[in-house]
Write a structure and sequence with these properties.
The chain is an all-alpha fold. The chain is about 50% helix and about 0% strand. It contains 3 helices and no strands. The model has no long low-confidence stretch (mean pLDDT about 80).
Length: about 70
């Protein structure tokens, strides 16, 4: 029978494929992309972003301070 949690047969996953495809292989997560970008040599834009976050944290911006704590763990 068709209903909640029971889709029609033509819309169910095929045998051997238990779920959605997920992230394609070789693609980086958002965190990995950000870390890669920030650790590149001579990357002026990344340095400006880090400088701005530090400046905002010094001014008392709680979100900027939490960002710094997350990335230094």
């Amino acid at each position: 029978s068709v209903g909640y949690g029971r889709p029609p047969k033509q819309h169910q996953f095929k045998p051997g494929n238990p779920g959605g495809p997920g992230r394609p292989k070789g693609r980086l997560s958002l965190r990995a992309m950000l870390l890669k970008k920030l650790t590149r040599n001579n990357d002026r834009a990344a340095r400006q972003i880090v400088d701005r976050i530090i400046r905002n944290a010094k001014k008392g911006d709680v979100k900027a301070l939490l960002t710094i704590f997350r990335f230094t763990e």
